[in-house]
Each structure stands twice: as C-alpha cells, then as structure tokens.
Amino acid sequence: MDRSLIGDLAHTDHPIASPLDDDTVDALLRRALAGQRSVLDLGCGDGTWLLRALRLNRGLHPELHAVGVDLSGAGFERTRTAADAEGLGDRLELHVADAAMWSTDERFDVVLSIGAAHAFGGLVPAVEAAASHLQPGGRLLVGECFWEQPPNDAALGALGASADDYANLASTVEAVRSAGWEPLHAHVSSLQEWDAYEWSWTGSLTRWALEHPDDPSSAEVLTVAAEHRAAWLGGYRGTLGFVTLLLGDGGP
User: Fold this and answer.
1) Is 142 helix (H, G, I), strand (E, B) or coil?
2) Model-level pTM?
3) Span 64-91, mean pLDDT?
4) Mean pLDDT, residues 45-69 taken together
5) CA-based diameter of the chain, in Å?
C-alpha cells in the first residue's frame, strides 16, 4: 500500500497529524485567527486544520478563506465533502503540490505549517517559506519536534535520526527568534497527548488490518503498526517532544 494512504489510515481517529488534543487545536486556532480573513496551511495533510478553522470562525468571521497545500493529497476528497456538507466548501481550497515549491501571488493573514518542517529542510527554512506567503503584520503557527531530553541510541535508532536533527526546547525557540520571529504563544505537547496520538496511530492501522484480513495490504499494514509501536514504546517515548509556536514578525 502507498505510504501516503497508510498515513491517512493511521489518522482515521486522530485527523490532526500531531500530538495535540482537540481542545488545544481549537485554542491555538482561536489565538492565531482572531480577526483574520485568510489562512494558508503548508503541508496540510488532509486539510483538517483548515476545516477546523472554518468551523470555529463560521459565526465570528464567515468571510475566512482557507487554502491548503500537500504533496500527497490523501484525504482531500473526504475533507472537501465534509466542507461542502457543512456549507464551507466555497471557502476551502486544497492543492496537491510540493509545499516547499508552491507559489501564489496571494498573501495570507496567517500561515500554518504543523509538523511539516522536514519538507523544507528544517524548522528555520519552514518558517522562512511560510513567511514568504504572509501579509505584512501577519502571524505564523508552526509546530516542530524537539528533544525533551538528550536522545539515547534506542531513541535515535527508533526514529532513524541523529542527535542534531532536533534541538532542545530553548534552542528551538531561539532558532526562530534568530530568524526574526518572536513567540506570541506556544503549546508544548504533554506525554498524555503524545500517548493518545501514538495509540490512535497504531490502533487505527491495527483495526483496519484485522477488519480486512483478505486485503492484500493487510499484513503490511499490521507490520507497519507493530514496528511503529515498538519504535515509540521502546525508543523515543518521553524523549521526543513537540512544540507549536504562534509567531509574530520581530522586525529587523
């Protein structure tokens, strides 16, 4: 099975593809979008962040325009269908494209890039790419991993990572400040949020495989779930953190 489809299946019960609970997502969107008219999500997954944004702003800012870009496009039709059913489809655009290469003349009040820094070559390049689509005075909402504690060999092996792939939290924040952006707010995902996300990720795949034993991809999907669960529980649990930062332009 195509890995983008496996990823879409893994997020069946947790469509926010990051270790964030529903209340946190809503709170972050309310802060970021207060009084704003347009939002872009680079590396948007299935577009769930944007659909949530439109729902939250249905009454307060019914003119909100939401645009998403993702290379896979997995789940786009599902999200478009949901948006249409809720009367939001005319305010949602989803584009299948490389978020790092996509261009438009439109500039946005808010740009999101949550858990997609790898597509840009790291956090600072992701911030710079997001900023290139931003209106003057706009806001960025970015989410990225960091080391909660120095990673041991088990964590690095489980992630297929090196110790310099991420920094600690303080250094992560200083990196975006050095790039000219100041934190207006942040949320550090709790271990409970990580656990809920990982159990959902592996559980959704396991359930699908058990419910489709005759599907040619069933064994592969079950293996992916088991390998991911082992890497998390036996490797990076409690070591890999995640921070979501709301940023304002710090000027020169």
Assistant:
1) strand
2) 0.94
3) 95
4) 90
5) 60
